TrEMBL record:
GO molecular function: hydrolase activity, acting on carbon-nitrogen (but not peptide) bonds
Domain named Amidohydrolase-related: residues: 54-405
Gene3D superfamilies: Metal-dependent hydrolases, Urease, subunit C, domain 1
Signal sequence residues: none
Protein name as annotated: Amidohydrolase family protein
Organism annotation: Sphingomonas lycopersici
Domain of life (superkingdom): Bacteria
Length: 412
């Protein structure tokens, strides 16, 4: 792969609020070489004149479900592997075209999909996956309607696994399920720590898993030098997950000021997912979201922006996620537009780059522009630090996208 040198760039490095004009950045062997205010030498390099546009790190979405081909979880279970995989390819290609050069599949993604991406069979961002989510019986990962008494493989292969989750009860089952997902290459483990929107039998406010079960899962992940994420809406579920060793809270929608301060003191992260809440409120019924789930969406929607404000005021470290299901995947960029109601553009940009890289344990490698970092870059037509809506336009304002040193899109 020939070296590439970007010139005349307005540089946002993923961290600093002050961009530097007239910068040059070299890319050699899939890595960033020099970052300099001076011209970088290299007779064999391709030179790209950025024309004063903003050069910034590729975006990171920490909460996707590539196989979630419908807003109705039962439909996902019944769709079959080819259908769900086709949806994954479509969704991941769209994410890449929007400037997301890294995603974390936090429930369902597996080694097979990761290998297909690595082998170039699917156009996709850099792909991290948590394997199947670990849920208790009657938890957010148990998809059986309330009238179903037995585990029916046609509804959910509980006791083994469904598309997105596996059921485990008690310390021994939780340990075994965790070890199995880690054995298959999961980069982290996700558990269901509270009730959820799309599951039929658990109220949003319900806390899930006992302390000994959560601590057992956390212990297994620490031995593997990785971490646990916990799906949590309610404040109590958030607090107890953090107290039991969970590193990352997914959603955090119903957090209160006291819990936000507690999370900040603990050093844990939260990955809010606003885009999916708005999408399910506006389109859920038309797309087949069950009535019980429609009512749950109203609960989290009413508190979502206030939750973001509590996190911001407390100084919680916040990552970037979307959690879009089925046909709502096209709303991925809307997350930027929603967050601007609470955050300044620089805060959102850090959330979608350097902070999300820290959550992935890839600080200094992803989400930044620095010597030695991975060459995941985008060129924005304009200044996203002044106008974050430039990133909310489905990639239309991106002149160039580079993933792992390869140019994916080039209008320059």
């Amino acid at each position: 792969m020939a070296p590439v040198i970007f010139e005349n760039a307005r540089l946002f490095d993923g961290v600093n609020a002050q961009c530097r004009d007239g910068m040059s950045v070299s890319v050699i062997d899939k890595r960033i070489g020099d970052v300099s205010p001076d011209r970088i030498g290299g007779s064999d390099a391709r030179r790209v004149d950025v024309g004063g546009r903003t050069l910034m790190p590729g975006l990171i979405d920490l909460h996707i479900h590539a196989y979630a081909s419908s807003v109705n979880d039962l439909h996902v279970e019944q769709a079959g592997v080819p259908y769900n995989t086709a949806h994954a390819a479509r969704m991941l290609g769209h994410a890449l075209d929007c400037g997301f050069t890294t995603v974390r599949d936090i429930g369902g993604g597996d080694r097979s999909l990761a290998t297909a991406i690595a082998d170039g069979l699917i156009r996709a961002p850099r792909f991290f996956y948590a394997g199947r989510i670990i849920s208790m019986t009657g938890g957010h990962g148990d998809l059986r309607p309330v009238h179903v008494r037995r585990h029916d493989p046609g509804l959910c292969q509980c006791g083994e696994a469904g598309v997105l989750s596996v059921i485990a009860d008690g310390v021994d089952e939780c340990v075994k399920a965790t070890r199995e997902e880690l054995r298959q290459g999961a980069h982290c483990i996700k558990i269901m720590g509270s009730g959820g929107v799309t599951s039929p039998a658990d109220p949003i406010w319900m806390n899930q898993y006992r302390e000994d079960e959560i601590r057992a899962i956390v212990g297994e992940c620490r031995e593997r030098r990785t971490y646990v994420s916990s799906h949590c809406h309610g404040a109590e579920a958030i607090r107890r997950s953090v107290d039991f060793g969970v590193r990352v809270i997914e959603h955090g929608t119903l957090i209160d000021p006291e819990t936000a301060a507690h999370v900040a003191r603990s050093g844990a992260f939260v990955v809010p997912t606003m885009a999916t809440i708005y999408a399910l409120m506006e389109e859920g019924a038309a797309l087949g979201l069950p009535p019980v789930s429609q009512e749950k969406v109203k609960v989290v929607y009413a508190a979502a922006l206030a939750g973001l404000e509590h996190m911001r005021e407390a100084g919680v470290k916040i990552g970037f996620g979307t959690d879009l299901l089925g046909d709502t995947y096209v709303r991925q960029c809307q997350e930027f537009a929603i967050r601007r109601h609470v955050f300044e553009p620089i805060e959102i940009l850090r959330q979608a780059t350097s902070i999300s890289a820290e959550i992935l344990n890839r600080e200094g490698e992803l989400g930044c522009i620095a010597p030695g970092a991975a060459a995941d870059l985008v060129v924005v037509d304009g200044d996203p630090l002044a106008d974050i809506s430039l990133l909310a336009a489905q990639g239309r304002n991106l002149s160039l996208i580079m993933r792992d040193g390869a140019i994916i899109k080039d209008r320059l």
